[in-house]
Design a protein that fits this description.
HisK_dim/P_sf, 3 domains, 17% strand, Heat Shock Protein 90, 10 helices, 5-stranded mixed sheet, 12 strands, transferase
Length: 460
């Protein structure tokens, strides 16, 4: 109960109401004290009227008048010269004088708190204006016991009333919070729990219904999140199904390519110079295709296999990639160039590096050919202080906005119509497996540039 939202709200409401009542209590007590003293002044003025009717009154009547007025002495100044006085013996000396004629609110509050906290009875003098213009000044002397008792009694009644108001107010607010906040929040929690049981079921997505603006905004945000999550789960399920299909196709394709690999030995024995020149590249392409099928099967079981790091000549590998792409160009006006030092040795997985570069160069080729305009693709490499940097730059049309937004995300970052976006996603994952990074340096209407950064040292 205490740890619940409604319980804490109830406790805070009681506390805040009591604080408000205390702030009301202090000036109320000051006002009650002032009214008490003004009442005594008025009663004393009425008692003094007997002296006006008869200048000579006996002592017994004077004592009765003072007793009824609740005072010991009365001084009524009717004009500058004449004063009427009723008096009786005082048990002690006057300890304080209070002038109500020009007293400020702070002064009244201070005097009331002092009187409430003073335990010992005192004799005080009170000065005020006579009622109904009955003179210039009236002054009385009273004992504070009855005054303090009246203030305490009034304070107790005020506090009891405050307690009742606090309980009633807190109870009403408690019910209001339960209806307006707690119940809708529990409904949202129930929707979340129901959705967690079957996030693929679109029927479990929350439908905003709250009338409170903030709660409705929360429901709408939750609805958007659930819809995005449901869509992502469906996409992952489709990807899993596609992965299974690709794994099956790769399995059969690997068998076909393995059979084709057996026939390459006879091709290599041909005396035709063109065949002799092209046969090694055909053999290498078939080997890479077989390796790709095996890697695809491994990907279907888990992730891309860890790279096998070896030292190899990067210029030779880049040359193989360029030669393979030239075969796909035919007569199109597209220039392929490389700027890689002939002695540059790189420590990486050569098969995976071939796939990375082939994906980047192929994407660039397809983008340029798609425009129908001449273009150029260049691959350059250099050795930095702690990493090898390989740049693939083209003069194509640049990546579309959607491809930039979903860069390196499979099936979403396709740069051309009909593209799946797998090439960049696979390349980025393979580079990341080397501990490196694949970065888009720039893309606009003048072309696109990617940089592969492979660290030289081992992780320490």
């Amino acid at each position: 109960m205490i740890n619940s939202l409604s319980g804490r709200f109830l406790i805070l409401t009681v506390i805040f109401v009591m604080i408000a009542e205390v702030m009301i209590f202090v000036p109320s007590v000051a006002r009650y004290r002032e009214d008490f003293l003004l009442n005594r002044l008025e009663r004393a003025q009425i008692a003094s009227l007997a002296l006006l009717a008869d200048d000579m009154i006996d002592s017994e009547l004077e004592a009765e008048l003072l007793l009824n007025a609740g005072v010991f002495n009365v001084v009524l100044r009717r004009d500058e010269l004449r004063q009427l006085v009723l008096s009786s013996p005082m048990p002690e000396e006057v300890s304080a004088t209070y002038d109500l004629r020009d007293a400020t609110a702070l002064t009244l509050i201070r005097d009331a708190m002092v009187r409430l906290l003073t335990l010992e009875p005192e004799m005080i003098r009170v000065i005020g204006h006579p009622f109904r213009d009955g003179g210039l000044l009236i002054e009385i002397t009273i004992e504070t016991t009855e005054l303090r008792a009246a203030i305490i009694d009034y304070g107790i009644r005020i506090l009891m009333l405050s307690a009742v108001i606090s309980i009633v107010t807190a109870g009403l607010l408690f019910l209001a919070v339960r209806v307006l906040l707690v119940k809708p929040i529990k409904g949202v929690v129930g929707h979340m729990q129901s959705y967690a049981m079957a996030p693929e079921d679109a029927r479990r997505v929350i439908q905003p219904s709250a009338s409170v603006t903030e709660l409705r905004e929360a429901e709408e945000a939750l609805q958007s999140l659930q819809m995005q999550l449901t869509q992502a789960l469906r996409q992952k399920e489709r990807l899993a199904q596609l992965g299974g299909a690709v794994a099956r196709v790769s399995h059969d394709l690997r068998n076909i390519l393995t059979s084709a690999q057996l026939f390459t030995d006879r091709i290599e024995m041909s005396e035709d110079p063109t065949v002799k020149r092209m046969a090694p590249k055909l053999v290498n392409s078939i080997k890479r295709a077989v390796s790709l099928c095996e890697s695809t099967l491994a990907f279907g079981r888990a992730e891309e296999p860890a790279p096998t790091l070896t030292l190899f000549n990067l210029a030779e590998l880049v040359g193989d990639v360029i030669d393979s792409e030239r075969l796909a160009i035919d007569d199109f006006d597209l220039s392929l160039s490389e700027d890689v030092p002939g002695n540059l040795m790189v420590r990486a997985d050569p098969e995976q590096m071939y796939r990375i570069l082939a994906n980047l160069v192929r994407n660039a080729r397809q983008a340029i050919i798609g425009t129908g305009q001449p273009g150029e693709i260049s691959v350059s490499a250099r050795t930095g202080d702690d990493a090898w940097c390989i740049d693939v730059i083209d003069t194509g049309p640049g990546l579309p906005k959607k491809a930039q937004e979903y860069l390196f995300q499979p099936f979403q970052g396709g740069a051309r119509k009909g593209g799946s976006g797998l090439g960049l996603a696979i390349s980025e994952e393979l580079v990341r497996g080397h501990g490196g990074t694949l970065t888009l340096l720039k893309t606009d209407e003048t072309g696109t540039a990617f940089r592969i950064r492979l660290p030289m040292g081992d992780v320490t």
